[in-house]
Amino acid sequence: MVESTPNALCFGDEFSASGAPCLVHVEDHGLTITFFPDRDGAVSRSESLRFSELTVSAGGLDHDQLVATWVGFKGQRTLYLKSSDVIRAFRQAAPDHLSQPLERAAEQVRQVRQRHRMVWSIVGGALLVVVLGLWFGSDVLVELAVDRIPVEWERKLGESTYHDFLAHQDVMKEGPSVEAVKEMIHRLTGQIPESPYTFEVTVVKSDVVNAFALPGGYIVVFTGLMKKAESGEEVAGVLAHELNHVLQRHGLERIVKQLGFVAVVSIVLGNPPGLGGVMKQLGVELMTLKFGRAQETEADLTGLQLLYRAKIDPSGMITFFQRLAEKDEGRVEWLSTHPMSNARAERLKTQLAEMPKQNTEPFTFDWTNVRASQGAPISTLR
Amino acid sequence: MKSEILYPGAFPMVRLELAEGEHIKAESGAMVACSPTIDIESKMEGGFLGALSRKFLTGEKFFFQTLRASRGAGEVLLAPTVPGEIVVLELDGVNEYMVQKDGFLAGADGVVIDSQMQSMSRGLLGGEGFFILKMSGKGMLALNSFGAIHKIELKPGQEYIVDNSHLVAWSTTTTYNIEKATSGWVASFTSGEGFVCRFRGPGLVYIQSRNPGSFGAWVRQFIPVSQ
Question: What value of ipTM does the predicted structure carry?
Answer without folding.
Answer: 0.78
